[in-house]
Amino acid sequence: MTTLPARPNTALLVIDVQQGVVASAHERDAVVANIGTLVEQARAAGTPVVWVQHSDDHLAKGTEAWQYVPELPRRESEPLVHKNYGDSFEGTDLEAVLARTGIGHLVVAGAETDACIRSTIHGAFVRGYDVTLVADAHTTNDNSKWGAPPPDKVITHTNLYWQYHRGPGRTAGVVETKDVEFS
């Protein structure tokens, strides 16, 4: 039900599952495994997988920390979007990548929940996309020393409020990995 004309297709958007981002993330191994399951399901269904990779002063392009985790190998044919801001649309070619294949619905997984995931799901929604967040396929680090809630609470809260997020002509939702269906 996207507001984007002639964009009936779905893509899996995998955000920032980079070694330096998720090395000490909450339930890292389980989340990475769930993302791996989603990637394989999307590929089997012929659903595009779009990868997003962050770089900034603390995550230098080309470093080992900047690389995607080895458990999630990207195929050469799958788009890779490089970004420098939390919202994967800001200053990138993501919109053009999605438009080329008629994508109007995003299934989102990755890191970090309270930064790039939140920024991107909101950025996509205000741009007219339907957005499904995969409840058990996003994670964050413990930022409680800076006043944030513990990571499990950040993830739970994000899942809670996103399942009730609404706007005219668009849908938002939350599903677990086992319930994602690509067609």
List keywords for this structure.
183 residues; alpha/beta; seven-stranded mixed beta sheet; 5 helices
Structure, briefly:
It is built from five helices and seven strands; from the N terminus they run βααββαβαβαββ. By secondary structure, the protein is α/β, with parallel strands linked by helices. The longest helix has 18 residues, at 28-45.
Task: Give a written overview of the molecule.
By secondary structure, the protein is α/β, with parallel strands linked by helices. The protein has helices at residues 19-22, 28-45, 94-100, 113-126, 151-163, and strands spanning 9-15, 49-54, 80-83, 103-111, 130-139, 166-167, 170-175. The chain has a seven-stranded mixed beta sheet with strand order 3-2-1-4-5-7-6. The longest helix has 18 residues, at 28-45. It is globular.
Strand content: 15-25%
Query: End-to-end span in angstroms?
Result: 16 Å
**Share of helical residues:** 25-40%
Low-confidence stretches: none
**So how many helices?**
5
Mean pLDDT metric: 97
Largest sheet: 7 strands, mixed
Q: What's the overall geometry?
A: globular
Largest sheet, order of strands side by side? 3-2-1-4-5-7-6
| Order of helical and strand elements | EHHEEHEHEHEE
Class by helix and strand content? alpha/beta
